[in-house]
Sequence to fold (194 residues):
Amino acid sequence: MSRPLLRTSGGEVLLPRPPSILATRADGGNLVVMPPRPVWERSELSAAELTAFSFLVAATGRAMLDVLPQLDGGCVNYWEAGNWALNDAAPPLGRKRAPEHRRMHLHLLGRSPGSTNPDWAWGESPRFPAYAERDTWGAEYERLTPDECRAVVARARTLLASRYAVPAQELAPWPECATCRYPVPQGTACPECA
Fold:
């Protein structure tokens, strides 16, 4: 289960929870951007949808670089995902066709020059978990903190408005949960504290 942090016409920024985290916060962190509607391949989005999705991805990645101290001098890798749904062991069992089962999304993976994890060594390609490792890979990884998430979202909103002319009504801040302090979509209860 991932928690939503920001929603625009371009899609939704999510914070994954263990074990779905691919990079622990100290190594740069992991956010996920979902497109505005489920598609198996980004070329299925209309021109307007793809443009808005690209704006959301770019603003979120830049925001991570701007506000996360662990990314000082670092970068962000953008990884298009959805392949685990195609694994023969994934339900329904057996071979699957991508158009019917894959749901494209992008992982934004912070790359810290100070990473001590060999899977995320600076200057190397990251190592991603195999399908069979999906429930154990990130079980001990820390997600970005509420303060970090609020800072990323605030900076992304600023960039979306100033660089990409996203209308202000799409960028209204969400309240924070009084208990955990993560952003919560308007009119909903915190999915973890309720």
The chain has a mean pLDDT of 95.
